[in-house]
Amino acid sequence: MAKQYETVIGLEVHVELATKTKIFCGCSTAFGGAPNTHTCPVCTGMPGSLPVLNKQVVEYAMGIGLATHCDITRVCKFDRKNYFYPDNPQNYQISQLYQPIARNGYVEIAVGDTKKKVRIHEMHMEEDAGKLVHDEWDDTSLVDFNRSGVPLVEIVSEPDMRSSEEVIAYLEKLRTIIQYLGASDCKLQEGSMRADVNLSVREVGTQEFGTRTEMKNLNSFKAIARAIEGERERQIELIEEGKSVIQETRRWDDNKESSHAMRSKEDAQDYRYFPEPDLVPIVIDDEWIEKIKEKQPEFRDEKLERYKKEFDIPQYDAEILTESKHMADIFEETTAICGKPKKVSNWLMVETMRLLKEHSMEPEDISFSPANLAKLIGLTEDGTINSSVAKEVFEQVFEKNVDPESYVEEHGLKTVNDEGALEEVLKEVIAKNPKAIADYKGGKEKALGALVGQTMKAMKGKANPGMVNEKLREMLN
């Protein structure tokens, strides 16, 4: 009988915090910008420059720690992690090894009907390194220090995950929590959330862990899932052939769907960690923790329950609406204005999602105001415009945040409720379509739809479909 293997996975997740300035200096953290323009003597590691800690970094880290049920370390300190790399300007990184900001938390995930807790070993604050830009043409590497000193939290999980589905569920849950806090936008494609996967395999029923490898360069959930499957297969193959898995760092190439070894895995002692001499310890008291707790938002799980009870919307809709805090805010604000949660939910679930997909946008990129969506719902509800005109107007609201009332007025899009004008058009449509009339009288209900369509076309889509239907039946019967 073939051996059964179990995958054991732990993650190190780096999240760039959404502060306006860097962790130890006043330089901008904005993404992009010409190379080496968001820099100063501190973040380029000039001799004699001194770091000054950004308080907002600590507060964001505490917020994430509390939201993931961690214990906050009352006296936490920074350490120097020494290593040479061209994008590391000081030849050390200021990080936290001995007394990180938070420890011993967990995140609850659900895969299918199964819920489980993924434990968080610890979470620490640190500075990001610069970025090496490789020029294939010149065969040179250039350094951009704009990212150097951007604040990060690194969230280290216990090896509690057993499949790529669990890993993705954990990452999605973490991302949602952090986005709800406003602590980071967590955009994997821009590198503001990065995950390194530590993976080993063992025979089912074995207690001991196998030899693990660490995989880097994963910038999408799909790439992470593919890398996990690829590395699992690679390790099982080695074991089946009687070879050993080597503890090393591997780089995943998503185009080739394979990984290659980068370096053998270092241990902490290789970094010669010692306490950072230029920064004093951070003392966190109960009062500060309470202040952060008070600022915590209503998180997604709580929102989901409330939406189903308060607004009586289905589980599926509530899940889509709460996936992004921005979308949830738009839903709540629009509902507060117009008092029609189901209608608001429909506009967001159907038309908004369609347009986001067409424009390759994320829910975070929605720029129309709740007031304008509420106005559009009002115009359709009171019959000022019909549903096909409403969709046309909504595209303008979505793209340019136009005022729907003014737009309808300026473009003459109001529904025509003039019976006299409608009768004239109907007479013409009836005269031009003898076959459809005969079909309808012969019992073919579908033929009526074609006649309604012709009438709407003749009235440039501005007729009231209900009224057209009613009047048409009256005239034909």
From TrEMBL:
Molecular function terms in GO for this entry? ATP binding; glutaminyl-tRNA synthase (glutamine-hydrolyzing) activity; transferase activity
Check the record and name the PROSITE patterns matching this protein. Answer: GATB (PS01234)
Gene3D superfamilies with a match to the protein in the record: 1.10.10.410, GatB domain, N-terminal subdomain
This enzyme catalyses: L-aspartyl-tRNA(Asn) + L-glutamine + ATP + H2O = L-asparaginyl-tRNA(Asn) + L-glutamate + ADP + phosphate + 2 H(+); L-glutamyl-tRNA(Gln) + L-glutamine + ATP + H2O = L-glutaminyl-tRNA(Gln) + L-glutamate + ADP + phosphate + H(+)
In UniProt terms, what function does this protein have?
Answer: Allows the formation of correctly charged Asn-tRNA(Asn) or Gln-tRNA(Gln) through the transamidation of misacylated Asp-tRNA(Asn) or Glu-tRNA(Gln) in organisms which lack either or both of asparaginyl-tRNA or glutaminyl-tRNA synthetases. The reaction takes place in the presence of glutamine and ATP through an activated phospho-Asp-tRNA(Asn) or phospho-Glu-tRNA(Gln).
Kindly give the HAMAP family that the UniProt entry links to this protein. Answer: GatB
- Tell me one GO biological process term: translation
List the protein's name: Aspartyl/glutamyl-tRNA(Asn/Gln) amidotransferase subunit B
Question: What organism is this sequence from?
Answer: Dorea longicatena
- Reported EC number(s) for this entry are 6.3.5.-
